[in-house]
Amino acid sequence: MSRRCELTGKAVLSGNLVSHSHHKTRRRFLPNLCRVTLMSEALNRSVRLRISAHALRSVEHRGGLDAFLLKAADDELSLKARELKRQLKQHLAENAAAAA
Q1: What range defines the domain where residue 94 resides?
Q2: 21 partner at 20 to 30 Å CA-CA among 2, 15, 32, 91?
Q3: Is 62 within the bounds of a domain?
Q4: What is the pTM of this model?
């Protein structure tokens, strides 16, 4: 399993650990990944995702998982999140057609 956020695409970065004497050794900056269960109001079901803590704050700020997925670009989403976004758009289109 890759160390990549399924919603924002945030992944492992590399850099230098710099000591007091300025010796530089390579290190890895790992994202703070959490396995969470988010609720999709439109689909009326819960979804388990492995996302960063920053993405979890972004989801809450945008007003939930549905709003986040509709605004997110497809290239930064994982396959699972892209499939969820496709289902969400299809469900919203069916509801709009039924209402009209």
Answers
A1: 32-99
A2: 32
A3: yes
A4: 0.85
